[in-house]
Amino acid sequence: MVTAPPIIDFEPFYSTDPNNKDLLIQQIRHACERHGFFQLINHQIPSDLLQAILHQSREVFGLPLEAKEKYSIDIEPRKLGYERLRAQNFEKRGLGDLKEGFYFCRDLPPDHPSIGRFLHGVNKYPTELHDLAAFRRVVGEYQAAMGELARNIMRVIAQSLDLEEHWFDDFCADSANILRLLRYPPQEVDETGVERGIGAHTDFGGITILLQDDTGGLQVWDRESSQWASVVPFPGALVVNLGNLLMRWTNDRYLSNLHRVINTSGRERYSVPFFCTGNLDYTVECIPGCRAETEEAKYPPITVQEWMEKRYADTYGQEGEGELSRDVGRAVDG
Fold this sequence. Notes:
This protein has eight helices and 14 strands.
């Protein structure tokens, strides 16, 4: 039987009722162990802000291609700005993933010491937009709101691992967060069966918080049934999933799960993933309690920057298919 990721009420985090908080911790623990995914409701992100970021996403992707290409991620600073259709190919087959994106880091002052580091730079805001000031304001507000929510989610995850609530705070401080606006055109009939909005993959960092519109198409691999489970959009909900770094951190106790998008709705799909990457200088090593005293940690310590640079190199083809692509192929092909 296919089991979809659960819908979890986050309201207890903001309450003073210890019983409700304990229940929330138990639900998060189970979701992290079983799915690596859950949908979050009552997260206190205003619905107006959620709608505003989707509106701005439609605005920016409505620009002519020649205008969007002026802000390409291949232009310095790299990995920020516009990514054209089929630029990625997670499953290393077919024509590439049928999506286009705009990538933004946190806005930092020009003299900030992190400017120029990996995943830090000066954002590329298209001046061709009808209301550039509104676009920048919404992107900034959304970034800030997601950063705060990510810290709160990590505080619950800490408690689910029997750690002190603020155990992950240093990891989240000055995090190299990335916000992506994504557009998925509707797929044509695909007789080959390899067309993907985005191919099966796992995320790289700590956690991802995803806003999806009501189109559907997101699927998560259900390991127990060996089938894909649809993450049906729930009004007002945000999708949360764990990244490879957190799975590594917990000695594989928590799951960074495969997911993909297949947009057969016949209309465009928009989504907004926010990646809580972590502080680049933070060293990740096996969390206390995630291995027995006589057991070796599965992974050696590594800094966030070292880990992320390797994953980016793998994804963008700089190291061939790499370990992530091979793992994806084994999981999808059975």
